[in-house]
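User: Here's a structure from my thesis project, written as structure tokens. My advisor, Dr. K., wants to see whether a designed sequence matches the one we expressed. Can you design one independently, without my sequence as a hint?
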């Protein structure tokens, strides 16, 4: 722009000099027109320059505004970083305080009162094992009194299988409704109401022989199965929600310990010296009322789950009272903040349907892992031990009394291994310990199968040998009797 103005100025100066010299060849009018044209171009150039200067000023103002915005954002980021650092430090201190919490007397009392439900589950899982022969004899007597004829062995085995399996059907229904019951009545309230089913089922099983009806046994087993299915949902939920953060993993094994103790207790009481008799087996089944009644007496003193009170019911003060009783301390703000953080995390997560869960590529791996973990437990073969170990030992050649004692040995081993697994979980890891257990069950299941195949082949061989021996004896008699008669007649 400056160059253009300089050139035009030089041109004007040259024209004026020519006019002053009075050049004859240059007309004055033409010179003035050229001067006017040059001035117009100069004016336009000046206006264009002013426009460009204005645009530059606007750009500089915009740049300055953007710089101010960047600076403001930078300051906000620094403040946010400081806030996050303070929050992380506060969270770290809160976790350290949570990890310092331990078992209190009232927390131990609440866990014991709740875990009676899992003791109920273990007891009713194993109680049907030992008195199998007594129950089958009872069914035979009832059938003969009703219809005046003996029942076939195949049908009596089917009836006994119904008595065993209907417990699992009830457990499945109870397990499905556990979540609804926990949210509708609370964890503690659900456990208290569930004991009504436990008492009803135990009474039906206890009065089975008195009523002379094996249908009452089926109904009692079904109801007690629903009770145990609800317990498998409500008890772990209640214990995990009242336990401190640092004890949740260890206290989770208390459920399995109670199950194995219940199994062992039912097996010990089922021997012939105690209740494994024709008169004692109804009492053995009816003793399932004891955990339900004991829980009804102990659990009302315990508080409701603080997490349920705070998150589901939004009763913050009630949750604080429950935490103060469980922690034996007034410093419960860390627990409240932890539950609030859990609530915010739950609200931020989007809910999906079952179809979306199955079709989601990101959730497919966790879903498969969860299903395989459950199937590995249910298909491991341990259920056959729970329900039929006595008959399995008897079929292998043991007497009924020895078979019951062998079953007790299995229950004792389960209790011991449950206690051993508690410290091993933190040392070896859950996955490694689970794989070791599955590997052992796989190998010994093969051994059990081979042993039964050998037993079956030996029995079949002995049977054929016995049949051949009988046939030989019959043939020998047929051959020797005519000879002896001919000798007597000859004499």
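Assistant: Designed independently from the structure alone:
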């Amino acid at each position: 722009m400056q160059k253009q103005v300089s050139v035009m100025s030089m041109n004007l100066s040259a024209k004026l000099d020519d006019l002053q010299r009075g050049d004859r060849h240059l007309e004055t009018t033409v010179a003035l027109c050229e001067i006017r044209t040059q001035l117009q171009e100069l004016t336009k150039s000046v206006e264009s320059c002013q426009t460009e200067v204005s645009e530059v000023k606007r750009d500089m103002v915009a740049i300055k505004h953007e710089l101010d915005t960047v600076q403001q954002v930078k300051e906000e980021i620094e403040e946010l970083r400081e806030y996050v650092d303070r929050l992380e430090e506060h969270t770290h201190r809160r976790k350290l305080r949570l990890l310092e919490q331990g078992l209190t007397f009232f927390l131990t009392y609440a866990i014991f009162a709740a875990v009676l439900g899992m003791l109920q589950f273990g007891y009713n899982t194993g109680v049907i094992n030992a008195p199998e022969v007594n129950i089958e004899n009872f069914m035979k007597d009832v059938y003969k009194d009703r219809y005046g004829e003996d029942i076939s062995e195949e049908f009596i085995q089917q009836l006994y299988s119904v008595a065993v399996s209907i417990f699992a059907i009830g457990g499945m229904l109870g397990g499905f409704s556990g979540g609804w019951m926990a949210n509708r009545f609370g964890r503690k309230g659900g456990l208290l109401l569930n004991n009504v089913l436990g008492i009803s089922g135990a009474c039906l099983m206890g009065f089975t022989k008195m009523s002379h009806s094996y249908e009452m046994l089926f109904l009692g087993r079904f109801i007690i199965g629903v009770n145990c299915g609800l317990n498998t949902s409500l008890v772990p939920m209640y214990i995990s929600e009242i336990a401190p953060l640092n004890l949740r993993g260890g206290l989770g094994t208390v459920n399995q310990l109670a199950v194995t103790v219940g199994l062992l207790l039912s097996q010990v009481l089922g021997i012939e010296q105690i209740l494994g008799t024709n008169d004692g087996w109804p009492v053995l089944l009816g003793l399932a009322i004891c955990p339900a009644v004991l829980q009804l007496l102990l659990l009302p003193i315990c508080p409701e789950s603080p997490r349920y009170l705070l998150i589901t019911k939004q009763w913050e003060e009630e949750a604080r009272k429950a935490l103060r009783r469980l922690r034996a301390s007034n410093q419960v703000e860390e627990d409240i903040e932890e539950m609030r953080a859990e609530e915010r995390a739950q609200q931020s997560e989007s809910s999906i349907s079952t179809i979306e869960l199955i079709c989601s590529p990101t959730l497919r791996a966790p879903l498969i892992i969860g299903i395989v973990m459950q199937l590995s437990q249910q298909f491991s073969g341990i259920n056959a031990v729970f329900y039929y170990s006595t008959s399995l030992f008897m079929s292998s050649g043991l007497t009924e009394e020895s078979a019951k004692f062998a079953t007790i040995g299995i229950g004792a081993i389960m209790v011991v291994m449950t206690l051993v697994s508690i410290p091993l979980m933190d040392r070896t890891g859950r996955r490694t310990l689970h794989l070791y257990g599955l590997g052992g069950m796989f190998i010994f299941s093969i051994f059990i199968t081979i042993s039964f195949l050998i037993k079956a082949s030996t029995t079949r061989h002995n049977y054929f040998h016995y049949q051949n021996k009988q046939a030989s004896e019959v043939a020998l008699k047929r051959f020797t009797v005519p000879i002896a008669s001919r000798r007597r007649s000859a004499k």
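When you compare it with your expressed construct, this may help: The chain has two domains: 1-80, 105-331+381-428.
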